[in-house]
Structures are given as structure tokens and as C-alpha cells.
Amino acid sequence: MKPARDYYEDLLRDLRNPEEAAAYLNAALEAGDQKAFLMALRNVLAARLGMTKAARKTKMNRVSLYKMLSPDGNPGFENILRLLRSVGICFRVTPEDWGKDRKKAA
After folding, report:
1. Which of 37, 44, 54, 95 lies 20 to 30 angstroms, CA to CA, from 30?
2. pTM for the complete prediction?
């Protein structure tokens, strides 16, 4: 029998890659669940910087950062942007289905 692997450690290793981290956050956003996105952002921060370094880099209190990114957290939009920038990820908005919307307008 194969030894069990720690899923969380594997996840953090994968999230050190910027493309993997961005895809992970996008998947959480597409799920449409705020709690899922906050947990995904917390995992990306933990993987890319560690929470202490993330708090220092963003000039946020570490305990507040943990609370903000908990399932019951409610960070402001500016805080989300600041956290994303701290790990080299930007926030973009794109249309869901541009071709479909243009046909309706015509």
C-alpha cells in the first residue's frame, strides 16, 4: 500500500507556481462562492509568501489577515486587491461570452 500524501502540502507546493495560483483563484471565483474564494486566496498567500510575510508585505495585522480570510471573513475590495498584488496576481474582468452578447445587441 502506498503511503498517504498530505493533500494540503501538495496544494501549497503547486500554488507556488503563479499560473497554478491564478487558475486556482479563477476556479474559486467561477464557483461563485465567497467563502471558497477567501479560502483559495488564503491558500495562495500561504504558499507564495507565508501568512507572516504576507501581513508584513501588505502592512496588515497578521491576526486580522487570518480573520479576513476565514470562511466568515468580509474583506473590502481594496484589501482583496492589495493581497492579490502582494503575490503578483492581478484582478481582471472579462465578458462571459462576448460573441453571444454581441448577437443579442445586433
Report:
1. 54
2. 0.83
- Locus of grid cell 479560502: 39
Contact between residue 48 and residue 21 where contact means Cβ atoms under 8 Å apart: yes
Amino acid sitting at position 6 = D
Q: Which domain holds residue 66?
A: 7-92
Tell me the pLDDT tens digit for each residue of 65-88. Answer: 999 999 999 999 999 999 999 999
- Cα separation, 18 vs 44, whole angstroms: 9
> What does the block give as the cell for 1?
500500500
CB 28 within 8 A of CB 37: yes
Q: pLDDT (tens digit, 9 = 90+) per residue, 4-42?
A: 678 999 999 999 999 999 999 999 999 989 999 999 999
Q: Is residue 36 part of a domain?
A: yes
